[in-house]
Design goal:
Elements lengths: L5 H15 L4 H31 L1
């Protein structure tokens, strides 16, 4: 069983709309997406460096 069910997600989304407004949510989602992309790139670079260090 997960933390949130279907009805709980509806409430969470409703509260987010109330707090931030519909205009700011796409900007926030874009920022979160960019942060996740940068995190994945940094993790990939670290893994590549670790593999190179390990081979030497």
């Amino acid at each position: 069983m997960g933390i949130f069910g279907g009805f709980e997600w509806v409430i969470v989304i409703f509260v987010v709309f109330l707090l931030f407004g519909a205009k700011r949510i796409p900007k926030m989602a874009k920022g979160i997406g960019q942060a996740i992309k940068e995190f994945r790139n940094a993790r990939s670079n670290e893994e590549d460096e670790f593999k190179i260090d390990k081979q030497e």
